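Notebook, bench 3.
Goal today: get a predicted structure for Ribosomal RNA small subunit methyltransferase E from Streptomyces endophytica so we can plan the truncation constructs. The sequence was checked against the plasmid map this morning, with no discrepancies at the termini. Length recorded as 247 residues. Pasting the sequence as submitted so the record is complete.
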Amino acid sequence: MTAPVFLVESLAHVQAGGTVTVDGPEGRHAVSVRRLRVGEEVVLTDGQGTGAHGTVAAAEGKDRLTVAVAELRTEEAPDPTITVVQALPKGDRGELAVETMTETGVDAIVPWPAARCVTQWKGERAAKALGKWRATAREAGKQSRRLTFPEVADPLSTKQVAALLADADFAAVLHEEGSAPLATAELPATGRIVLVVGPEGGVSPEELALFAEAGAKPYRLGRTVLRTSTAGTAATALLLGRTGRWS
């Protein structure tokens, strides 16, 4: 089994041969939940692409872990990057979408309150829901042993999503009535890929028209219709394989 990953605020001044102390919630999880012991391998990451690989030097109290760092590793920046604009699903399906997309390898997630979304984020609910998405991305990033966690952006309006699509090197709207399969779309070798995943009720004709003006054509994934909480994960996996990032 690969070494567990724990998130730290910064690794800017950490060097091989030194030590890092992990406390707070991460330290409690390591000491009291995972019950790590001296000598066990661990990885510390800042979530921005850097990892400190080492072993447990000490476990004190209920929430204090000291790690002896053996080496620092840095992940190469992904290219092309994959951003998924995710329409707001009902209930906890939003966290499910964020979790599985993170585990698969998405680089950024943009919440989108589409016209046909049953769920709408407003006021305190918006801040709470966004916090859940970001916490889910962090936990899924650790669980999947990532060193670079995906950014979960602030929600964007439909016009803002259109601007994001216009700036992409490849933009697509996942749509069950799309005439072209995403599996055969011509993809850029570098740059940014942006996919739009609509709500359960589908992307409205007005939204489709606006996104088309921005250069995003409708594409289908396959013969079956996926739910909004799973379509982004399936599309991300497809593109990671096609772009060579999974090779």
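The longest strand covers residues 50-60. Residues 176 and 225 are 6 Å apart (CA to CA).
Flagging this for group meeting.
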